[in-house]
Amino acid sequence: MAWIYLGVAIVFEIAFALGTNATKGFTKLWPSVLTVLAAAGGIFTLSRALTTLDVGVGYTIWTGLGSVGTVVLGAVIYKERITLPKLLSFAAIIAGAVTLKLAAGV
């Protein structure tokens, strides 16, 4: 169940990061409300995941995969460029997350 909570937390993290851009400095009401709700949802579900997972594993996977998802969706939604160095960095983050999951033995 902890991994499901962590997956949901990652989705909230991505929504928070992308929403922050949409708020235009928190000057737009509804994007700001959704961004704050996404942040709260992410922290809540991460905290639920961390009742079972080691904090080092859970937090690292949350931030790493949240970052990858944000960059990928940022390219789709905001037309940001994905360069070769970004792709190599994604691969390193994903490899690290998989290694952490395997090392956790959960």
UniProtKB/TrEMBL annotation:
<keyword id="KW-1133">Transmembrane helix</keyword>
<comment type="similarity">
    <text>Belongs to the drug/metabolite transporter (DMT) superfamily. Small multidrug resistance (SMR) (TC 2.A.7.1) family.</text>
</comment>
<keyword id="KW-0472">Membrane</keyword>
<dbReference type="InterPro" id="IPR000390">
    <property type="entry name" value="Small_drug/metabolite_transptr"/>
</dbReference>
<dbReference type="InterPro" id="IPR037185">
    <property type="entry name" value="EmrE-like"/>
</dbReference>
<dbReference type="InterPro" id="IPR045324">
    <property type="entry name" value="Small_multidrug_res"/>
</dbReference>
<dbReference type="Pfam" id="PF00893">
    <property type="entry name" value="Multi_Drug_Res"/>
</dbReference>
<protein>
    <submittedName>
        <fullName>Multidrug efflux SMR transporter</fullName>
    </submittedName>
</protein>
<keyword id="KW-1003">Cell membrane</keyword>
<feature type="transmembrane region" description="Helical">
    <location>
        <begin position="84"/>
        <end position="104"/>
    </location>
</feature>
<feature type="transmembrane region" description="Helical">
    <location>
        <begin position="59"/>
        <end position="78"/>
    </location>
</feature>
<keyword id="KW-0813">Transport</keyword>
<keyword id="KW-0812">Transmembrane</keyword>
<feature type="transmembrane region" description="Helical">
    <location>
        <begin position="29"/>
        <end position="47"/>
    </location>
</feature>
